[in-house]
Amino acid sequence: MIYSDLDRSDRSKILTSFNIAATRTGILTGLSALRSYLPKARRSRYDLVSYAKAMDSLEEMPVSAVRFSQLPDDARLWVFAAARPLTTEQRETLLAQVDEFLESWLAHGRKVVGGRELRHDRFLLVAADERATGVSGCSIDTLFRRLQGLERELGVPLLDSSLV
Predict the structure, then answer these.
(1) pTM (predicted TM-score)
(2) DSSP conformation letters of 10-37
(3) Relative to the CA of 138, which of 35, 108, 149, 152 has its CA 20 to 30 Å away?
(4) Are 42 and 34 in contact (CB under 8 A)?
(5) What are the distances in angstroms from CA 124 to CA 47, 77, 109, 138?
């Protein structure tokens, strides 16, 4: 069995398991978590890294950030709305800054497993997998402070809850 033989649900479980374990204790533990989902014939370290790369988990996303679609349905979600669609430059700046934030987002000294998505060039969705790492009031405050700074930088309100 190879990666392409796995159905979408299995691939999602593998990636989520990898990201959670890698975030908590490092990449080698993440690989061990992947190993539990793979057939015995495919359990070498090389194959595990190949699977992870095939799923874009090592090359494109920081370990603490996951693709928004791979977060569990019960992830904690925040929706931030801009009053108008963002320009291409604003969109790129916003997403780059939010990605940077997600890479370093901590709750009680532990990395938060989270993701983000921008919809319709106006709605920023940020979610955290609380099963992997619970978020606290202080960690939520850091998210809001970062977005306040981005509001000033972009010249676009993001924290006006009347727009959601």
Answers:
(1) 0.61
(2) HHHHHHHHHHHHHHHH-HHHHHHHHHHH
(3) 152
(4) no
(5) 35, 10, 25, 20
42-78 tens-digit pLDDT: 444 445 455 554 444 433 433 467 888 888 888 999 9
Close Cβ partners of 52 (under 8 Å, ≥ 6 residues apart):
15, 18, 30, 31, 34, 58
**Residue carrying the six token digits 């925040």:** 78
Here the tokens at position 107 are: 């709750």
Degrees, nearest 5: CA angle 89-90-96: 90
Instruction: Report residue 151 as tokens.
Output: 């509001």
* Residue tagged 């998210």 (tokens): 143
For 107-140, what is each residue's pLDDT tens digit?
988 889 999 999 999 999 999 998 888 888 999 9
